[in-house]
């Protein structure tokens, strides 16, 4: 009898572990309430879909694919991850409503290398490329699209970069006192004026000459400063990435 029991134990030990329920990663991973569950990530999760794997505090969360795969396995699900995905981006949204189209598959997206405060300018070293399951429709294709721009709100390290995260930093506001400078051929002139509108570096703004009350078009070059002439043309030719490194 003992021999039969021992033989049965050895057979069970040698047999491969029962495979979990096969699931596939959703093409658009969305979370509506800030608690990311297996149902938010996988099609066919069934009862295990209620299991929470992470939380989302901002507009998106970036999950480690290996950790998600392990959490799914513990819940009885089997995600093969044949594409070799390393990061999963979960965006705020709901499966019940229309969602923005995404680029599907094992794709590269820009993510924030560090957390940024609202109003802080994005520097070249602040964004890095990472693999993800999907890219939002407004994900920038080039880092230059966000470098030199200002964060509209606090941005978390590891989150996917979205063009709606940032806007052109305003260095001059309407009503600000502005010094307009012209330099060419060794000649340098300056006049004082008042900004009639707001603008970031490289933007053309209307400036009213304080003395003559005439309005001229100048290019914002910094807080309270603008340029006209060759310097304005040169500034406009620079990309925002170059502003950020100046």
From TrEMBL:
One Pfam short name: ChapFlgA
SMART domains: SAF
Keyword terms, alphabetized: Bacterial flagellum biogenesis, Cell projection, Cilium, Flagellum, Periplasm, Signal
GO cellular component, one term: periplasmic space
Alphabetical GO biological process terms: bacterial-type flagellum assembly
Cited CDD domains: SAF_CpaB_FlgA_like (cd11614)
Extent of the signal sequence: 1-19
Localization of this protein: Periplasm
Residue span(s) of domain SAF: 107-167
Entry similarity comment: Belongs to the FlgA family.
Function: Involved in the assembly process of the P-ring formation. It may associate with FlgF on the rod constituting a structure essential for the P-ring assembly or may act as a modulator protein for the P-ring assembly.
Name listed for the protein in its UniProt record: Flagella basal body P-ring formation protein FlgA
Source organism of this protein record: Phenylobacterium glaciei
């Amino acid at each position: 009898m003992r021999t039969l029991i021992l033989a049965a134990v050895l057979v069970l030990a040698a047999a491969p572990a029962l495979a979990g329920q096969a699931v596939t990663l959703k093409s658009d991973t969305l979370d509506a309430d800030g608690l990311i569950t297996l149902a938010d990530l996988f099609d066919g999760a069934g009862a295990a879909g209620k299991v929470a794997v992470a939380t989302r505090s901002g507009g998106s969360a970036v999950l480690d694919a290996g950790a998600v795969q392990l959490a799914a396995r513990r819940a009885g699900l089997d995600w093969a991850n044949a594409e070799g995905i390393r990061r999963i981006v979960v965006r705020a949204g709901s499966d019940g409503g229309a969602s923005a189209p995404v680029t599907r598959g094992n794709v590269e997206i820009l993510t924030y290398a560090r957390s940024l405060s609202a109003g802080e300018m994005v520097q070249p070293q602040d964004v890095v490329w990472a693999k993800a399951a999907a890219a939002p429709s407004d994900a920038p294709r080039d880092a230059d699209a966000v470098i030199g721009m200002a964060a509209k709100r606090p941005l978390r390290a590891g989150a996917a970069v979205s063009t709606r995260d940032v806007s052109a930093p305003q260095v001059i506001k309407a009503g600000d006192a502005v010094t307009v400078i012209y330099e060419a051929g060794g000649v340098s002139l300056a006049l004082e004026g008042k900004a009639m509108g707001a603008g970031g570096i490289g933007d053309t703004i209307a400036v009213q000459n304080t003395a003559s009350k005439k309005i001229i078009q100048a290019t914002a070059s910094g807080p309270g400063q603008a340029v006209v002439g060759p310097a304005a043309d040169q500034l406009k030719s620079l990309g925002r990435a170059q502003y950020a490194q100046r």
